[in-house]
């Protein structure tokens, strides 16, 4: 009888511990919640289902087409991944607010996100710009991400791999 009760009690205890940790993580945001913001945008755009004029450029070769995005979470994943509220990054960003723009910067070598600027208009994010710089001995990539709600998103990437030619990519999506 005791063995039969042990498993459900253990599972319940384990489940309740996980819920507390998750709740603590969400309330402990030091900087603007990029991840939360873009998860809401993904949900909103998935419901809205707008037509997007998408232009993709690779080393100058340009291709454009209009379509509906089937999976906004894949389309905006790079924005969600630019979350600066990681526990290990606490205190690594300088915060500056001026003229309706919040700017978060870091010069820490191990943090790829170097700058996030959020321009506010009527208490809503109007323009979000993210600069990411990854580098090691063999590789360097610089990304500039721009997001304007209900207007456009832009991903520009420059890659330099040793002994290979530079590559430049860009994706610009204009919402109709």
From TrEMBL:
Q: Which PROSITE patterns match?
A: PROKAR_LIPOPROTEIN
- Protein name in the entry: DUF4251 domain-containing protein
């Amino acid at each position: 009888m005791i063995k039969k009760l042990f498993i459900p009690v253990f599972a319940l205890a384990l489940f309740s511990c996980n819920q507390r940790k998750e709740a603590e993580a969400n309330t402990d945001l030091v900087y603007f919640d990029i991840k939360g913001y873009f998860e809401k945008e993904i949900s909103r755009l998935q419901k809205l289902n707008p037509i997007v004029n998408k232009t993709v450029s690779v080393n100058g070769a340009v291709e454009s087409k209009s379509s509906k995005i089937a999976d906004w979470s894949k389309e905006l994943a790079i924005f969600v991944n630019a979350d600066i509220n990681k526990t290990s990054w606490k205190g690594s960003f300088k915060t500056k607010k001026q003229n309706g723009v919040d700017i978060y910067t870091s010069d820490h070598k191990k943090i790829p996100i170097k700058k996030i600027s959020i321009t506010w208009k009527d208490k809503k994010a109007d323009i979000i710009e993210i600069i990411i710089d990854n580098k090691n001995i063999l590789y360097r990539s610089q990304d500039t991400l721009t997001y304007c709600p209900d207007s456009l998103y832009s991903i520009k990437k420059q890659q330099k791999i040793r002994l290979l030619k530079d590559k430049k990519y860009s994706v610009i999506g204009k919402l109709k």
